[in-house]
Amino acid sequence: MKSFLKIVISAVALGVMASIPVLRAQDQTPPAEGAKKGKGGRGMMSVEDQVAAIDKAVGGLTADESAKIKDIISKTRDDMQALAPEDRRTKGREMMQAQHDQIRAVLTADQQTKFDAMPPPGRGGKKKKDN
After folding, report:
1. Helix, strand, coil: what percent of the chain each, to 5?
2. Rounded to two decimals, what is the model's pTM?
3. Buried b vs exposed e over 76-104: b needs ≥16 C-beta within 10 Å?
4. Average pLDDT for 82-107
5. pLDDT of 14 strictly over 80
6. Rounded-to-integer distance, Cα 65 and Cα 108, Å
């Protein structure tokens, strides 16, 4: 009887230990909502979120400005996706600079000043502090 009880307890303990990885997998959080909408993955902001961030930073965009900026960002995003992975670093920087310049051209002079003050994208968007 004691050996049967040991076998049952061992089987239950083994079952509990085997289920731990499955339970941990269920606890992992899904990707951010912006990453689901965006095409790039890896936590990339959606086009709509980027336009909203620019809108907030410059103090309000017109519907026409928003539409133009959305088109610029969408085109850049599509062009980046079409690049070969080895070209993304070099050509991607050029494309992002061109996108910045195109967006800036859509804005008024006052909005351009505020747009220029926005933190750069990527790596948290934090500017380096001077010591």
Report:
1. 75, 0, 25
2. 0.59
3. bbeebeeeeeeeeeeeeeebeeebbebbe
4. 89
5. no
6. 10
